[in-house]
Every structure is written in C-alpha cells, then in structure tokens.
Design a protein that fits this description.
Chain lengths: 286, 286
C-alpha cells in the first residue's frame, strides 16, 4: 500500500508550488513535508519533485498526485464518514471553458482543478490518470474510459468590417487568404486552414498571428488584427451588432466535442456528467 | 554564418506544427523541408525538431527559431527593400491580455506571436531570446534588456453576493477564509494568499479551485464557485451592477507591471513600445 499521508504532502506541494505553502495547508512544518517526500522518493526509487526554483512536479510525481485525486474521488463516492473535499482534475478545451462549460462546473460539490486542453494532450492525460475526465474534440477511445458525444461547437470565419473591406473586397478567395493575416490559437489549431481549404478547395499557407487565449483571440478579430474561426457562442452579439462580419455565412465549421471520463471514477462523476450533458444540450448543436 | 533558408524552414515547422504545412508556406516539397532541417541539425550537432507526433521544437530548435525572428525584426528596422512581414514574439501576462493590451498590439505592423506568461518564465524566455519583449510583473533586470514600469494593475477580492453571504456572513476572517473555496489561476498565483495575509495578518492555507484562464476565472467568481482576486478592469461592471461584491473595498492589491524588451531589437520595437506605454497609461494605475 502506498504511503497516503506522504502522497498528500506531494500533492499539496505540486498544487501550491512550494514546501512552505504545503506545510501550512497540512499544518506541519516544511521540514516534515520535505521528509515525507524524500521518504516517498526513496521508496518509489525516483525523483517526484524538481526542487527548482520553481518547484515543479516530475512526471512520476504528477502521476502519483493524480492517483491521490482519484482515490479521494472514490472515497467521496463511498458517502461514508465526513469526506475530505475531493479535488476533481479535469481537462477542458479552451473555447468550451470560455463559453458554455463553467455553469456546469458550478454544480461540482468539491474543488475543480482545470487544465486547458490544447487539443492534443487530453487523451494522454486521461491515459496517464492525470485527469479524471476531459471535454475534448478528440473521440479516439482511451483504454478504461467512456466517451460521450456532447454535440458540436459551431465556428464562424469572422473579421472586423474594416478588415474584411480592406483584405477581402471581393470576398475571401485563395489569393486574398494567402495575403490577409489570420489568427491562430496555437500550432495545433488547424481550424483556419481547414475552413480556407473547404472554401477554396486549395491548401493555403495562411499568414498568422498566434493568440493563445480564447477571449483575446476574439478581441483580436474585433480589433482588426486578423480574421479567425470564432465560436458562434462567443461572437453572436458581435455579428448581430455589426462589430464582426461572417466571411461566409453558409460555411460554418462544426467541431464535435466529447466527454471522455475514466470508467473507474465514472460513478463518482455521475452528477457532473449529468450537468455537463445538460449544459451541452443547451449550448451546442446536436 | 547560419543557413537562413534552413532556419526559415525550421521556424515554419515549429509555428505550423507539421512539415507539410511548412512546405506549403515555403512553396517547396515536404522532403525539401525535411532535408534542410536535417542538414541544419547535422551542422549544429543537435536535434532541433522532435518528430513526434506531435511535431515539436527541442530547446535548441526554439532558440534558433527565435533568433530568426530577431534577425527579421532587425531587417524590418532597416527599412530597405520590401521586408518580409516580421513575426514579433511577445510574452504577456494573462490578465493584461484579457483586459488592456490587445488594442496596443493592433498597432504592430507585422504578425504577433504571443506566449502567455504564467508569471515565472517570461524572464527566462527573454534571456534565451525566445521572446523579444514581455509584459510581466517581474522587474528583475535581464542582461541585454531594458525595463520600463508600465503602472499597476489593481486587483479586488471578489465573490458573488450569494457566495459572500454564505461563506462570509461576518466578513472575510481567518476562520472563514480557511473554509471558503478560493480561486487560483495556477500554482504560481499567490494573489489570493497575499491578500488573505494582508487582511488577517495570518498565513492561511486556502482551499482552492484551479482555473487557468482569465475570463473563466472571473466567470467562476460570478457563478459562485469561489472568491478570487480579479482585475478591477475586468469586473468593474459586475461590481457596479451587483453581480460581484468586493470583500474589502479598502483593501485592493496593486501589482506593478513592466515592459521588458531586448535592447538589440528595441529600436525596431519603438512604435510598439509607444503604443504599450499609451495603453498602459490609460488603463493602469500610475
């Protein structure tokens, strides 16, 4: 059996970023925290915390902390004795976090520990047990996980009216798209390229700004830095009021989203799963 | 002299996340891109791209790509011949990105490549040349960089009225803060703890949700998940309209922000520096 008090010390150091803060949370001295973690490292035969600065978890340290989260979640599901407040580690894609998902998270009785899925890692995190569940555009099955389709998020190719008039006087074409600055969330964000290919039939190399935050990405479109695929949920008012224009109203891009969750902790997650499904039904396309 | 066409191939692969997309942007075949990078790796004696999946830069690869950005920026400063559109790599702290900084970036003639500073890495990035400039709360001098004070961002301890009534019926005290869920941006976000200590005089271990996105963090406060330090710029309307309450109107927390930029590329950055200073004067406290 693992040494759970030592795991608790490890998890607090990781979450709070220092031995002092962890000690405070656990009501022990920093040297006791340090001692517990050293003993745990000896037993596991590997370094769990990179002492830094900054203090940071190693990969095995992260896995152990996530394991503790799952054990606590299972304990909470027992409904016996007074449970500690469980911490629920979730991965959520940035645009869902910025639009429809927060109210559902308000239904969680414990504390949420969110990680933003950049569209690529959520499944690795699930597989490694670093998160208990994920809202992701990735439907690939993960061993030990169930996958529910939540609906589709509709994106629209949008730009400010000035930007559209300047760069797309004759509409968006292969030639104008090859010149006009686009917005890109990060290197994994292929939505702009996919849409441009759907529109023109050509694979285009788009000039691009990189704006890795959902709200700032929409702001960049409003301010005329570039055109980009924005979630309809986020920019409906801008379209209605003319702050943004839709470059091709008959060519939205629909991205299916999935709720992938560990079968082991699934029963403990059931109330959250219901809240997520309900919020998705209200916000997403079927 | 470095092989700049090969560096350009490297940079495109990193920014676009695949050899195919880079080839498209450079109008060569994917195998030509691959060949250029292999030759460059042989000459540098190190792996520059982790072929993945996902395709990703190694640390030396990132440094070389950033070097290319700087060379292009200097070229743009020459104002001779028709310059390529320079890419400006910047680090910005999340709350500035969510509030006051985007309009200033709209003044940049080239393309911006933003990285979100989680308060800890911006100086390393500057030192390593991975970004040309940073908006950061860190004033530590970086060799080869200039540091301008931009002003202070005012944070207010805020919660929904229901949350405040339920968890802080007698106001926020050491006892109630030790029980009430707080919001935390990430492990480096000490604002809540600092404020709680300023209020109570005690170092407290706050129970916390982790919400690593500025807008979602404010939404979490509005929805009653927890209390947290929100930028006044972001939640002024909520306070005016009663959607959020200030837990201690006479105890805001002011965080000074700095514009740190490479002295080498400083002249090329001058128009942006002016735009940033002007926007900061309008939005931040002196």
């Amino acid at each position: 059996m693992l040494d759970y008090p030592a795991l608790a010390a490890l998890a607090e150091v990781i979450r709070r970023g220092s031995f002092e803060a962890a000690a405070l949370a656990l009501r022990v001295t920093p040297s006791a925290v340090s001692q517990r973690i050293r003993t745990l490292e000896d037993r596991m035969g590997t370094v769990l915390i990179d002492r830094g600065p900054p203090v940071r978890a190693t990969a095995p340290g992260l896995r152990l902390a996530a394991h503790l989260d799952q054990v606590r979640l299972l304990e909470a599901g027992l409904s016996m004795a007074a449970p500690e407040r469980p911490v629920l580690p979730l991965a959520v894609n940035a645009d869902s976090l910025a639009t429809w998902v927060m109210p559902a998270l308000a239904a969680v009785p414990g504390l949420v520990d969110l990680t933003i899925d950049d569209q690529d890692h959520a499944l690795d995190w699930l597989r490694g047990g670093l998160v208990a569940a994920a809202i992701t555009s990735n439907s690939r099955p993960v061993p030990g996980c169930d996958c529910l389709r939540l609906g589709a998020m509709r994106y629209r190719a949008t730009a400010s009216p000035d930007f559209a008039a300047r760069h797309f006087p004759d509409g968006a074409t292969a030639a104008s798209l090859a010149q006009a600055p686009s917005l890109c969330f990060n290197a994994k964000d292929a939505l702009q390229s996919r849409w441009a290919q759907a529109l023109t039939g050509a694979r285009l190399a788009l000039p691009m700004h990189r704006i890795p935050a959902s709200q700032a990405f929409a702001d960049a479109a409003r301010l005329g830095l570039g055109w980009g695929m924005n979630p309809e949920l986020m920019i409906r008012d801008d379209l209605d009021q003319g702050g943004l224009v839709d470059l091709a109203p008959d060519l939205p891009l629909d991205v299916p989203l999935y709720w992938q969750f560990s079968r082991l902790t699934g029963p403990a997650l059931a109330p959250l799963t219901e809240a997520i499904k309900k919020a998705a039904r209200a916000a997403l396309l079927p």
